[in-house]
């Protein structure tokens, strides 16, 4: 995947003082640059505004519709663009629906447990492979990287997971994809470069590997830890196909994405809300505001976490030449 | 003492037993990840044997009958397989032409925004859809462009007639490409922004002093500065020409029909797992993997021919 990643490095005690200043805010136009033409300026502004609008306007419409009453939806003839009397009715109804409630818990559970497992495994492995000249680290690294290019593919993996008894089991949604070699490589490149001096200092003071990792490496690499945790968490939160593969269709283990797919994307009726339909042609479908509330529900956790992690994406230093 | 230290710069001449004792906790740390990768990545490689069998789930890989290349022979004579291949290559081509230049252009545009605050804001907005699931992204498209979506709402109230983009197989390639652009183009600029930030600003200053205008600076400084990254991304894109996405097609297949929406990524699922014909699906998967490896290798050779590093050096 074209997933080359940029993460701002956490400041360490050894960072050169000039580095931050060089990367610092640009406050104005450099003296040698000619002032922009009005036409160019306008074209630029319009393109950027269009770019933002394409992403923000649909989200706005979905949120407003989810907050609208059936009457407002009727008056608008579908999705509501301008708020027309806001109500939390759809959310109350949604959270009263046991399918959605269970799915929310399932999604949160898979995401929290999965991210914890993935982070523990990845951080340990990345640190374990990051010390130069340690025994066997090159061999293990090659073993890891090969999996980025060669894999059994869908069916052999499916046969292994089901062969291990993974059908209809929670672990089938977590363990097969728990390790991302790409993420391990990103973490490793941080551990082997950024904190090298600190690690050496800690070792000189008599700290063992576990202690060094816990009290020196992790505290100095919070930014990359946060970014990688977000990557894993988003992966688990968004997982959808593995549910289709490993869970029976009547399973109570539906995560939220699957509910979104069934009730909104395919427009199947939501249990418990069939009679609340607003239009004659959509008698079987849930009311639009309720559908949009489900969409918003799948977005909320991301929107809560994103601002805290997003600031670390800023183009600081390109993390190694990790490609693949 | 410090000679046994793993981080000192001295070459280690210790026997491997001593090194094992010294590095045992480091090795222990790598064990969980290695175990998971062996179980879920290396063991399935043996499962590829099913491609040469007539796999029977009741007796497993060890006792299934061998079929030689029979599955591959069938595959090459299967019109559905060729349909998926053609769809995949066509979609890859459309994405290469329409998607690929956009992140480069957006990165240049964003780089010219002077206000750091505005830049940060734009970046955080355009990165966001990358973190949406495909189900969510397609739901958003459905609500905007679908039969009951905002666009058709507008068309209907103004008596222009309906235009259902979401179910039209003829424009499906454009639809999936615009979905991919909406979801991923913003995130893709990150690597170009980093390359732009790495260009030495003294070059611009010197060029400006020599009378080079903004377009000549773009042509002679900026684009050469981006060349390495552009070639790398191109190599990755070409190497992945047979992978156009999975869930995106899975979710939309019913709406546009399999003629338009079947791609190689989903072939194994529909004609392998869903039908219980595991060997056939595994053969299709293996076929795709082998061609993909060849493509990566070839694209890399191409990059080297242009004097760039590509995916790996040498």
| Biggest sheet architecture of chain B | 2 strands, antiparallel
Strand content of chain B: under 5%
Greatest interface by residues involved? A-B, 112 and 112 residues
Please state how the strands of the largest beta sheet of chain A are arranged side by side: 1-2
CATH fold-level name of the domain at 98-266 in chain A: MetI-like fold
Q: Total number of helical segments of chain A?
A: 14
Q: Considering the protein shown, what is the CATH homologous superfamily of the largest domain in chain B?
A: MetI-like
How would you characterize this protein structure?
The complex is a heterodimer of chains A (324) and B (314). With 324 residues, chain A is mainly alpha-helical. Chain A has a domain at 98-266: MetI-like (MetI-like fold, Orthogonal Bundle), CATH 1.10.3720. Helix content of chain A is 60%, strand content 1%. Chain A is built from 14 helices and 2 strands. Chain A has helices at 17-23, 38-66, 70-76, 89-96, 98-128, 137-149, 154-163, 181-193, 196-204, 209-220, 222-237, 241-246, 256-265, 288-310, and strands spanning 6-7, 317-318. Chain A has a two-stranded antiparallel sheet with strand order 1-2. The longest helix of chain A has 31 residues, at 98-128. In chain A, 40% of the residues are buried. Chain B folds into 2 domains: 1-45, no CATH class; 74-305, MetI-like fold (Orthogonal Bundle). The longest helix of chain B has 32 residues, at 16-47. Chain B is globular, with a radius of gyration of 26 Å. Mean pLDDT of chain B is 86; it is low at 1-5. At the A-B interface, helix 2, helix 5, helix 6, helix 7 and helix 9 of A face helix 1, helix 5, helix 6, helix 7 and helix 8 of B.
């Amino acid at each position: 995947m074209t997933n080359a990643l940029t993460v701002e490095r956490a400041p360490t005690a050894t960072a050169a003082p000039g580095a931050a200043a060089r990367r610092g805010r640009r406050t104005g136009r450099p003296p040698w640059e000619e002032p922009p033409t009005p036409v160019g300026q306008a074209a630029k502004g319009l393109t950027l505004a269009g770019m933002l609008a394409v992403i923000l306007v649909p989200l706005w419409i979905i949120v407003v519709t989810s907050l609208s009453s059936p009457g407002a939806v009727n008056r608008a003839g579908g999705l509501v663009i301008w708020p027309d009397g806001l109500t939390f009715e759809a959310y109350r109804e949604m959270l009263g629906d046991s399918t959605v409630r269970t799915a929310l818990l399932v999604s949160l559970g898979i995401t929290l447990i999965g991210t914890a497992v993935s982070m523990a495994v990845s951080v340990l492995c990345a640190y374990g492979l990051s010390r130069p000249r340690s025994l066997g680290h090159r061999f293990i690294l090659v073993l890891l990287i090969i999996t980025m290019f060669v894999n059994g593919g869908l069916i052999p993996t499916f046969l292994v997971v089901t062969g291990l008894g993974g059908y209809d089991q929670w672990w089938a949604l977590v363990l097969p994809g728990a390790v991302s070699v790409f993420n391990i490589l990103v973490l490793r490149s941080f551990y082997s470069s950024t904190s090298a001096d600190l690690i050496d200092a800690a070792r000189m003071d008599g700290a063992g590997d576990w202690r060094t990792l816990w009290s020196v490496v992790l505290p100095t690499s919070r930014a990359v830890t946060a970014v990688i945790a977000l990557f894993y968490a988003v992966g688990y939160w968004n997982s959808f196909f593995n549910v289709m593969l490993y869970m029976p269709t009547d399973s109570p283990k539906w995560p939220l994405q699957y509910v979104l797919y069934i009730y909104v994307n395919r427009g199947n009726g939501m249990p418990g809300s069939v009679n609340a339909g607003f239009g004659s042609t959509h008698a079987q479908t849930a009311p639009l505001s309720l559908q949009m509330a489900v969409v918003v529900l799948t977005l909320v956790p991301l929107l809560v976490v994103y601002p805290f992690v997003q600031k670390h994406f800023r183009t600081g230093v390109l993390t190694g030449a990790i490609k693949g | 003492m410090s000679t046994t230290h793993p981080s000192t710069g001295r070459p280690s001449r210790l026997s491997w037993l001593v090194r094992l004792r010294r590095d045992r906790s480091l090795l222990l740390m790598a064990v969980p990840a290695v175990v998971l990768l062996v179980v879920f990545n290396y063991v399935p490689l043996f499962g590829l044997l099913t491609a040469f069998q007539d796999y029977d789930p009741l007796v497993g890989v060890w006792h299934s009958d061998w079929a030689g290349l029979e599955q591959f022979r069938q595959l090459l004579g299967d019109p559905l397989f060729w349909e998926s291949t053609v769809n995949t290559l066509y979609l890859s081509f459309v994405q290469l032409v329409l998607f690929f230049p956009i992140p480069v252009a957006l990165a240049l545009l964003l780089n010219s925004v002077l206000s750091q605050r505005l830049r940060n804001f734009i970046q955080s907005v355009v990165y966001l859809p990358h973190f949406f699931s495909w189900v969510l992204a397609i739901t958003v498209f459905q609500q905007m462009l679908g039969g009951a979506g905002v666009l058709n709402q507008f068309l209907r109230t103004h008596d222009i007639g309906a235009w259902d983009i979401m179910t039209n197989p003829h424009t499906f390639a454009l639809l999936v490409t615009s979905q991919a652009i909406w979801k991923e183009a913003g995130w893709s600029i990150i690597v170009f922004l980093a390359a732009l930030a790495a260009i030495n600003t003294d070059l611009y200053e010197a060029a400006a002093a020599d009378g080079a205008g903004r377009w000549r600076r773009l042509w002679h400084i900026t684009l050469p500065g981006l060349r390495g990254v552009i070639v790398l991304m191109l190599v990755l894109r070409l190497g992945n020409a047979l992978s156009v996405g999975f869930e995106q097609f899975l979710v939309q297949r019913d709406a546009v029909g399999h003629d338009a929406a079947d791609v190689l990524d989903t072939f194994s699922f529909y004609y392998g797992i869903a039908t219980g014909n595991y060997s056939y699906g595994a053969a299709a998967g293996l076929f795709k993997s082998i061609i993909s490896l060849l493509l990566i290798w070839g694209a890399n050779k191409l990059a080297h021919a242009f004097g760039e590093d590509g995916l790996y050096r040498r």
